[in-house]
């Protein structure tokens, strides 16, 4: 048994799938008789567009530059070690991680709410 919302995993490794929504079983299907589109509709309760149509974009000028950034936490432990990155106009940057691994300190430093040990945020 596997419990997941990742449709590609379900379609690749399962023979049968049971869909629950709001704590209730709404359907059971064999993988051969269903599709990702149908499973999505069953999971959400309505039709969902799984494709995003977007045109190719050319990133603009840099709007955020981080160079060799080093940041500590309240206890002085270094949480960000020499990070460099650049975000250009039209780009979207996402940063994720396990809590306590520096992403909060990075966000605070970018917003100038936390002092940096060294490096630059431009």
Describe this entry's structure for a reader.
The protein has 122 residues and is an alpha+beta fold. Strand 3 (62-72) and strand 4 (78-88) form a beta hairpin. Helices cover 20% and strands 32% of the residues. The chain is elongated. The relative contact order is 0.14. The protein has three helices and five strands, in the order H-E-E-H-E-E-H-E. The strands form two sheets. It has a three-stranded antiparallel β-sheet with strand order 4-3-5, covered by helices on one side. The mean pLDDT is 91. The protein has helices spanning 7-13, 36-44, 103-110; strands at residues 16-21, 24-30, 62-72, 78-88, 118-121.
Beginning-to-end CA distance, first to last residue: 49 Å
**Fraction in beta strands:** 25-35%
Calculate Rg over CA atoms: 22 Å
Largest sheet descriptor? 3 strands, antiparallel
Biggest sheet strand order reads 4-3-5
* Helix fraction bin: 10-25%
**Annotation field: number of helices:** 3
- By secondary-structure content and strand pairing, the structural class works out as alpha+beta
**SSE order:** HEEHEEHE
Number of strands: 5
Please state the overall shape, judged from the principal axes of the Cα atoms: elongated
Q: Which stretches of 5+ consecutive residues score pLDDT under 50?
A: none
List the helices and strands and how they pair.
Blueprint (H helix, E strand, L loop, with lengths): L6 H7 L2 E6 L2 E7 L5 H9 L17 E11 L5 E11 L14 H8 L7 E4 L1
């Amino acid at each position: 048994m596997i419990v997941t919302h990742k449709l590609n995993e379900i379609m690749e490794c399962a023979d049968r799938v049971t869909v629950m929504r709001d704590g209730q079983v709404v359907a059971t299907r064999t993988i051969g008789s269903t599709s990702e589109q149908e499973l999505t509709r069953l999971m959400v309760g309505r039709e969902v567009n799984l494709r995003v149509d977007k045109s190719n974009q050319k990133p603009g000028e840099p709007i955020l530059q981080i160079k060799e950034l080093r940041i500590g936490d309240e206890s002085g432990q270094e949480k960000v070690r020499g990070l460099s990155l650049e975000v250009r106009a039209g780009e979207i940057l996402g940063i994720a991680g396990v809590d306590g691994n520096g992403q909060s300190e990075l966000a605070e430093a970018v917003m100038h709410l936390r002092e940096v040990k060294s490096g630059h945020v431009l």
